[in-house]
Amino acid sequence: MKKTEIVLIVLVALIIGVIMSLTFNASTYITFADSEKQMGKEFTVIGSLNKEKDIRFEPKLNLLTFFAVDSLNNERKIYYHDSKPQDFERSEKITMTGFATDSGFVARTILMKCPSKYNEQQHINQDTLTSLTY
Amino acid sequence: MEFIGEHTLIGHLGNAFTSVAFAAAFLAAYSFYKSSCNETLKRIWLPVARGSFYMHGTAIIGVISCMFVMIYNHYFEYQYVWQHSSLELPTHYMISCFWEGQEGSFLLWIFWNIILGVLLIKSAKSWESSILTIVSIIQVFLVSMILGIYVFGLKIGSSPFDLIRNLEENIGLPWTEMANYLQVVPQFIDGRGLNPLLQNYWMVIHPPVLFLGFSLTMIPFTYVIAALWKKNYTKWIKQALPWTYAAIMVLGTGILMGGAWAYEALSFGGFWAWDPVENSSLVPWIILVAAAHLMLVYKNKKVALPTTMAMTLLAFILIIYSTYLTRSGILGDTSVHAFAGGLASQLLVYLLTFTFTTIVLFVVRYKNLPKDHKDDKVSSREFWLFIASMVLFISAFQITWFTSLPVINKVFGTQMAPPLDAIALYNSWQTPLALLIVILMAVTQYLSYTKTNFKKFFKQISFSLLLSAVLSLFIAYTVNMWHILYFSLLWATVFATLSNFEYWRKILKGTWEHSGASVAHIGFALVIMGALLSNANKNIISSNKGFIAKDFPSNENVLLEKGDTTLMGNYYVHYKSDTLLGINKTYEVEYFSLKEEGGFTYEFTLNPFIQLNEIMGNVAEPATKHFALYDVYTHLTYADTDVHDESNPYHHESLINIKQGDSVIYNQHFLYLDSLMVNANTDLQSQNALDVMLIAKLRMQNMQGEFSATQSIYAVKNNAAQSFPGFIDDKGLKYKFVFDQVNPEAGSIQIKAYEHIDNEKPFIVMKAIIFPYINVLWIGMILMAIGTFIAMIQLFKNKKTLES
Q1: Is the pLDDT of residue B352 over 90?
Q2: In 3D, which of B213, B183, B233 has the Cα closest to residue B281?
Q3: I need a labelling partner for B375 at 20 to 30 A (CA). Which of B205, B333, B461, B691 fits?
Q4: Which residues in chain B have their CB less than 8 angstroms from residue A4's CB?
Q5: Do A15 and B397 touch (CB under 8 A)?
Q6: Full-prediction pTM beyond 0.90?
Q7: Which CATH superfamily is domain A28-131 in?
């Protein structure tokens, strides 16, 4: 066998390794209800912030609590043991990794998606409209 | 209708320039193509082609000038200006506004392509027509992104010259029908301003450098395409080599400048986070480095031409892919700073056209490509350079595959979420690959082409090998780094640094002209060493010992009240004061160390600040103290940014409903309504109350159980209600109570309670990290750029001598 062929085989093996590695390590997007079937195990949940309910940041406890609604419209209280991200109230979608407990979902990381420029503009035009009712 | 105050001329001019630029790029592509066919056609078409390319360039400069005029003069009727700039923005950041948006950044890219196109017209000689055909086609695609015209109901591109009132979503709104909308709609008085994160000096220079890197990557690509197209398979390498090195240098510098920006101005605490946006510019760089080394192998040994070509082509395809990833919005949930997208399908067409054409051309020509049939010796330099390129390829493949998760989901219909600890997973792949690369970088230069004399090899390398073992043991002992993989990588970087230095000193006799490779290799080794030392040993000194769950520390932040001092690592950290200056609220955080004989020694002050931005939200910027051997990074994760109005010190209104004799908990204190007295002045004849006065007797309990009382009065006189607030100001309580209304049905009264600002001391929540030896990384980065620069100059010189 030529050496180039050996190199090629190793290369292909590594490529398959990379592909497998992602498939095995990828987490799954699930709902709160599913995350509660295995309490304490970490999952990724995508939810949206319930802006009607209390968003409470207690700097002295370093604890942010808020309510999020998942894709099946189930709501849970979220405990996030870190500072409140800037602009948190404006977020639309929140991707949370963490685990379920009896009293709520404990988030290790949260990633917010803020409204796109397009929507923001809509919003401002709406304001403009109301300010100009004549 | 005539709209008052609009500057429509500049927009028309800009649109005209854009159309001319698009048409001229088209014409240039066609005429360069014609002129590449044969000598006769060349005589006719080449002047046309050059002329149209210059016209294209001039029109683009026209477009850019129009945009600057609009931004500089604050023409907020234009969407781009309104969205990205504001009145109080300093002039130097106006340059950043220019490329904050999609349209502007495409223009920056187009602009660099023109500069390079002109350089190629001047220097590419016989290659000119064919490579400029490809450059012009790329320009057609890029300019189409900023056209902003409708073709059969499809919007092609998005123009920076769109008026807000003409945007699709605004058509038909009442204000767009008003001639004086600019005067009466308050939103048009000022723009939304530049994203505060981008108001940083790195953001003035990082994008142009990065985009120049993107543009330079195009040049080797056009050479390979031209070579395949014109069946001139081998001569391109000497032409493309210096440009490839230029691309490596500029793109690499651009990426690391982005890292420097992240480190200086962003809050994630580090210079690299394997974020998709960062990854997608790193990957083409890695592939380009692999391609450049393969080109060198081919130049010297005439082997592995197909791989060399494929790798060079791939680098540019990956640039387009990265543009697609970061700008189409597909990254959505997985990236912090994905740009908003609207050009998704157009970018996909661009990507697929280039990928497909390239693959077809390569496959069609593959059988004609010169191939080597003899097997390389395991002891030869070319064999190990080839292996090194493959290791780089795997590294790039892993990053791309992981970054492409949303694309994979879309294509295969899967629902995979990013790995829970993505950074650790990236590191677990990239650390061993980096180890391999660095070792190869240390030894490969000592191998000879074709066959190596091992006796000579060991004689030459043994010194570096021994010294590196001793040195790395010493460093590992100093920084306590005994993890087997980390220690190996540390040793490899020391080894590569020494061996490359020795190679330059002994074998290249220390000449500057030939130092390029050695300097760049040392630079790369130091970048890896710096990344390893500063990351593996980074110390979050603000973290404390609380845990929420196993492996889940509760707190990497420390709360500091104004005037307080707390111990972090070896420092006593003191929050001294804060000042509001313009839009920045700056905090003064002092660091002290403990003297042996007792007492504190002042060490330094850091000023992290918060940029107040009502529209986009406040942004905290870290402050870092740089020492030769380590950095102390300080970041405010939370701070109270309310501006207190001293003339009205009561704030935080709460509504309290309370019945007589009842108590409520307000602000962690018991509040009693002891009695509610009514004083009425009654008209004796009609029995109606004329004037009524209600007196609420309130009592509040402090933490020690002591009481403090006040009364709040609600009076109605001649049918007008008036309230006289009651104050509590003793026993550590400072509150104001306003008797707001009576609820006769509920039998309760409503009180508005306010807290005095003195009740709460201002505080900050901060994070502090020590990054040891991070300067090694920056020195490495500079050396890498210098080394690549020297190599590039040398290659351009060689090319010149070859041609003359």
Answers
A1: yes
A2: B213
A3: B461
A4: 375-376
A5: yes
A6: no
A7: Nucleic acid-binding proteins (2.40.50.140)
